[in-house]
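Tutorial, part two.
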Amino acid sequence: MTGTAAALVDEWTTGYRDADAPERRLVEAARACIARWGLRKTTLEDIAREAGVARATAYRAFPGGKDRLAEAVLCHEAGRLFTDYDAALSTAGTLEDLLVVGVTGALAIMADDEVVRSVLAHDADLVLPHFAFHHLDRFLDVATELCRPHLGRFLPDDAVRPAADLLARVVLSLGFRPAAWLDTRDPAAVRRFVSTYLVPAVRPPKEPI
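Running the prediction step on this input gives:
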């Protein structure tokens, strides 16, 4: 599955970077509609109207209708986030800085992104099953491949998967159910949380002398 996850990350990133103007226009229109009404209530007609194109144009661009367009929105968003955060993560000079940037950014997306908020508010039953039981494995595989080049700068190869797994589970837990004791919008609070709990948890123990 790891190879598949790596290919998926690459596909999303490439798809986002290579999208042409009409595709981006439809995706942005879909984002606006989903943020406004939720995924279930958004129709292809709504999206076409928002984009200022004919319904047939939307169908030609995304055979399969709304489901295909919703998938395109997800892929574009994932590709955009991978691209944007890759630069920020690449500049981190320490493991602590890396985790602060990654955890803060991921939690901010779950708390502040208008599409994520709308889907969780209106269509949580469509989304949450993908993060439970055996479905969670696919998400953790993708998270590992996303984190691998960055965590690999500070951790040995065999420690990357456990670290990425733990970080993904923490972000999901705090994102879906924020903790009253942690203000994720306070950089100092996030850094204390990361340095106190996450850095010691992901850093392998030192070999005995």
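The CA atoms of residues 54 and 123 lie 27 Å apart. In part three we will examine how such features are distributed along the chain.
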